[in-house]
């Protein structure tokens, strides 16, 4: 945390030296920021806000990628469209589990990680690892008729069908998730169980992921399982399975985490976010699954059939905002502290866990610099 505070103090001092106001900086946050969204300015020229990229803003960005997941599609699309290259950004990926990537992020061997905020991230920040949630990914799945829903699924012989579901039947049962419930999935399950007078503590958790989770659910090894994209489409084809809990619209916890080597290059970070946002505005607003070219591109990146993408619930990427992140981080910390998943008993100040400065700058700074490459 000390490194984060020093960085923020340095930024504030630099701005003061330039006689700039916080308003003209697109809402730069400080260690005492309340997390309230700033009033967006209509225009923030690069000669006013030092975070705004210029035609000289170039560099290499190495990103930790745990797997080819649909929730990261906005970054994949920017890459596939050649927008990073056109903007002078050399974006590279290292495929490795999030837990393996965190030490590399702290050491500056990775600049950023595509991940979801879990116990590992909270504990790492508490221990002094300098990283911030700087960009959101999707904002929940919009379920339309016929869509399959990623989330917890159960069998009808356990909880009944969708019209007569009884979640109390999960009491004492074995339930799986990729992290055994130590992340967002655990909070989602807890919220669902509370509607019937149960809690997360009333089930037994185990760790299963990918195809193993679906197979374990189908063969009776577990009574419910977190089925992640794109396997929820396969789950929906099984008449014996039923979805029981999923993401609510809004912040999902899937985030771009920046380490010290990226936070020390704020213009480059803002440039990256602007390029991703350009891909969203160009290809991923509305029901982008109706665009054959987009579906074909993502199917190739994710190595799945195009029908999987068309049949999955619509991922919402637009508009890009950090609104609600503070409330989300407070809620998930409270859940994880309640069930002893964190190495501390009192929640951290959320302003040490995320920084809205970069998204705010990306949305207010001019993008003309990209056109001059």
What does this structure look like?
By secondary structure, the protein is α/β, with parallel strands linked by helices. 38% of the residues lie in helices and 15% in strands. The protein has 16 helices and twelve strands. The protein has a five-stranded mixed β-sheet, with helices on both faces. It has a five-stranded mixed β-sheet with strand order 8-7-9-6-10. Strands 5-12 form a two-stranded antiparallel sheet. Helix 2 crosses helix 12. The longest helix is centred in the C-terminal third of the chain and has 18 residues, at 266-283. The protein is globular, with a radius of gyration of 21 Å. It starts with a helix and ends with a helix. Residues 1-6 and 8-46 have low confidence and may be disordered.
- Which stretches are poorly predicted, pLDDT < 50 over at least 5 residues? 1-6, 8-46
How large is the radius of gyration?
21 Å
Strand content: 15-25%
- Mean pLDDT, as a whole number? 85
Span from first to last CA? 37 Å
Profile the largest sheet: 5 strands, mixed
Task: Please work out how many helical segments DSSP would assign.
Answer: 16
Which series of helices and strands comes N to C? HEHHEHEHEEEHEHEHEHEEHHHHEHHH
Largest beta sheet: strand ordering = 2-1-3-11-4
DSSP strand tally: 12
Assign the structural class, choosing from mainly alpha, mainly beta, alpha/beta, alpha+beta, or little secondary structure.
alpha/beta
Shape label: globular
What is the helical fraction, as a range of percent?
A: 25-40%
